[in-house]
Amino acid sequence: MSDRSTVPDYLALLRHEAGVARAAAWVDEYEAAHPDVFSVYYSAWGDRSARGEAAALVETQADVVRRRETATSLAVHAVARRLRELGLIDDEIPLVMLVGGRSANGWVANFDGAPTLFIALEYLDDSPGDTALVAHEASHVVHARLNPTFDTETLTGRLVAEGVAVVMSRLLVPDASESQTFWFDGTHADWVEGCRRARHRIGEVVRDARSGDSAARESLFSMRPADGVPPRAGYWVAEQIVLEHAATAASVRDVMLWTEDEAEGFVDRGLTSIL
Fewer CB in a 10 Å sphere around the end CB: N or C, the chain? Predict the structure, then answer.
């Protein structure tokens, strides 16, 4: 699969007058030109209520979107080349680039029968954090290829999958800061230290999540954390668990191949040691 981009049809919205006409064209022309892409987007990551606001930003974002389309394609192909050198893949990373309503920056979903990297160009910030995002999500693609039946919806599976992606992104983008590695931006310099300070409270939430509290589980990976816990603290926990077992591409690959039973045991021991 070659790169897929919605950018040409996004830029075609400039033909329409800003306001009601362009908002209507967003749905009737732009999204209609890529129904398969937007079906994935709105299945979990997109927000249809943001369409009007997104359409109003086309003129403001047109030049930067053009630039980011090129930069993102180059970054994904560079990451794929490095993954090939490390022996983790033998081809390219399927890529879909779109412009949406600023509700998600990057994710992996099955598309045309394969795990595929999606990047929402409007949510990038033109920093090394963009490459860290590409590396993180590309690692999810590799994990899904190597271990397609591994359940990443459980807490254990999510911790392993996100830990793998963070550790692998460190290997692929070693110059990224902590903020860029975990948040894909430069505005969260104190976040890792905040997680360390809150580790006992994080441990309480993790224990609630492991006992079956789905709200506690989701809070660990969201912008709506439990009281006393930094947002998205689950990513910090995940990295700590995987770092105990993986410092090289080969060892990260071994973690990607864990069975669910193996993952449960490793996560048990990892949580005991860090929380």
Answer: N
